[in-house]
Specification:
The chain is α/β, with parallel strands linked by helices. The protein folds into 2 domains: 6-413, Alkaline Phosphatase, subunit A (3-Layer(aba) Sandwich); 514-541, no CATH class. It contains 20 helices and 15 strands. A hairpin with a 3-residue loop joins strand 13 (439-444) and strand 14. The mean pLDDT is 95.
Length: 556
């Protein structure tokens, strides 16, 4: 046990905020996540910095906006030298450990340029966002030349599940009524029982691996942050028994849709609706077929978290471990006639966030909800504070949530920001955009959500009167809408103009750059009197330091 708390940072992939009972789902009961909320703070306005896996996670791991760290889409490497949460924790003797998914892509050319061996200790950390990879698995191993092989595959083989692709053939496939093994990638198979016992599924496996890490860490003695990053409920949407048939069409909530929105003319949203995944999920029978499996995956996750939390209680770990639970983005599931993610409606860009802090300072806030505007980049400074790191405002753009956890003053935010670079996505091709023009940016002030769609009209939602975001005021001539668009556009511009990449100089260093006069660098002084009036000391006080005490050594 350490004096500083440990941190268990749980992230589910593609989990909607409203598919938990503590966030209001009428049929999907998640008692273990609800119990976590009852002993912590449940945040109701948490937004990701990008509605797609890679850049969202890179923002969470760096505490920085997408435009700052530069990893703008899946497959875009996080550049060598970009400071991460793991780097900051290492400075104070804490471990930052990964169990599961990051979606990190290593900057191999940058590592080669700097002579960093990818197999060295520093090379491994650079390639894993600063995490010590207890187990890295991004969870996508379909049948293809890019299949890959994971430790989970080895685990399956060791338990008798042998094939050329155990992940595909067992964890993410099932048997149809004719006894044929069929892939979970095909949505028509979502209702089938996955071809694996639940105890050997991906979710159960990663839960076990987290416990294995924590068991060993108890003997190590150093404080730790464990990032337990689950692969599910991300597609493929298929789940083992008994979760495959817990829910049916009667449990599928009605979609958030507007006929007018479907016929709307905004080019970006039209291109999004034209995607195969959107066309598919816009069909009611698809939603009724797939969403029960999605719900089953979440129920399985909740049950495994219950198993994990009880184990931590039994081991005494809960007494000194901050537990944070969140997601990297949501899932449209046919809402707004859309599929997957990639835009800024709340169902995609807003995520659940629950933080349970066991320290006595948090006793007064337990079981409360906070409607404060929160960003995913706020997690890094919050964890850093808890684990004894000095603040780094020159690097970290997020804001420490500790005041909200401890019921004190000190946290305030006017806007949340999210960004989406779709230059490599098929929508950019459909819209005939050059790479540099295919981007959107969102700013939200708690009521008005403004989306700058480069090359196209903006999008504007008023969540006070239209919480479902079905009415777009982006081109409205109403004076109020014109004024709001101008205000938020200006705020977005101001944010964009800030220094986002000056990370090598602390505030003290920057302040020290202002004292050039004190160090004999005199620009614009006419005479000694002007100097003395400005510096407040006589000109004669400027005295040479003299030669160094040790002579300089030069090679011959």
């Amino acid at each position: 046990m350490t004096d500083r708390p440990n941190v268990l940072w749980i992230m589910a992939d593609q989990l909607r905020f409203d598919y938990l009972s503590c966030y209001g789902h009428p049929h999907l009961h998640t008692p273990n996540i609800d119990a976590l909320a009852a002993r912590g703070v449940q945040f109701t306005n948490t937004y990701v910095q990008s509605p797609v896996c890679g850049p969202s996670r890179m923002s969470a791991y760096t505490g920085r906006y997408v435009r700052s760290h530069g990893s703008t889409w899946n497959g875009v490497p996080l550049r060598v030298g970009e400071p991460t949460l793991g780097d900051h924790l290492t400075e104070v003797g804490a471990r930052a450990v990964l169990v599961g998914k990051t979606h990190m892509v290593a900057d191999r050319p940058g590592m080669a340029r700097l002579g960093i061996d990818p197999n060295s200790d520093i090379g491994i950390k650079v390639a894993q966002c600063g995490f010590e990879p207890f187990e890295r698995d991004d969870g996508l191993h379909p049948n293809s030349h890019r299949q890959g092989w994971s430790a989970y595959d080895d685990y399956l083989v060791s338990h008798g599940y042998e094939s050329d692709n155990p992940w595909e053939d067992f964890a993410n496939s099932g048997y149809d009524k004719d006894g044929n093994l069929v892939s979970g990638w095909l949505l028509e198979n979502s209702h089938l029982e996955a071809n694996i016992p639940e105890e050997h599924s991906e979710t159960a496996y990663m839960t076990n691996r987290a416990m294995e890490f924590m068991e060993g860490a108890m003997e190590d003695g150093r404080p730790w942050l464990c990032h337990l990053s689950y692969i599910k409920p991300h597609w493929p949407y298929i789940v083992p028994a008994p979760y495959h048939d817990m829910y049916g069409p009667e449990h599928v909530v009605d979609p958030i849709r507007s006929a007018a929105a479907r016929q709307g003319s905004h080019p970006f949203l039209s291109a999004h609706r034209d995607l195969r995944v959107s066309q598919c999920f816009s069909r009611d029978h698809v939603r009724e077929h797939v969403i029960p499996a999605y719900m089953g995956l979440i129920k399985q996750l909740d049950d495994n978290l219950g198993r994990l939390f009880k184990w931590m209680d039994d081991k005494g770990l809960s007494e000194n471990t901050i537990i944070a639970f969140t997601s990297d983005h949501g899932d449209y599931l046919g809402d707004h006639w859309l599929g997957d993610k990639d835009f800024y409606h709340d169902v995609a860009a807003k995520v659940p966030l629950i933080i349970a802090d066991p320290r006595p300072q948090a006793d007064g806030s337990r079981g409360t909800k906070s409607a404060a505007l929160v960003e995913m980049i706020d997690l890094a400074p919050t964890f850093m504070n808890a684990m004894g790191c000095v603040p780094k405002p020159e690097i970290i753009e997020g804001r420490d949530l500790t005041p909200l956890l401890h019921g004190t003053d000190g946290f305030y935010r006017r806007y949340v920001i999210s960004e989406y670079d779709y230059c490599s996505f098929e929508m950019a091709t459909a819209l005939n955009l050059d790479q540099q023009d295919a981007f959107t940016k969102m700013i939200f002030d708690g009521r008005w959500k403004y989306v700058h769609c480069n090359s196209f009209d903006p999008v504007l939602f008023d969540l006070e009167i239209d919480p479902d975001e079905v009415q777009d005021f982006g081109t409205s001539d109403e004076p109020e809408h014109v004024a709001v668009r101008a205000r938020l556009k200006e705020a977005l511009f101001t944010w964009s103009m800030r220094h986002h990449t000056r990370v090598t100089a602390t505030q003290d260093v920057v302040a020290g750059l202002k004292v050039a006069t004190q160090t004999g660098i005199l620009i614009g002084f006419w005479d000694e009197a002007e100097y003395e009036a400005d510096a407040g000391k006589p000109f004669s006080s400027l005295v040479a330091a003299g030669p160094p005490s040790e002579p300089l050594v030069t090679e011959k």
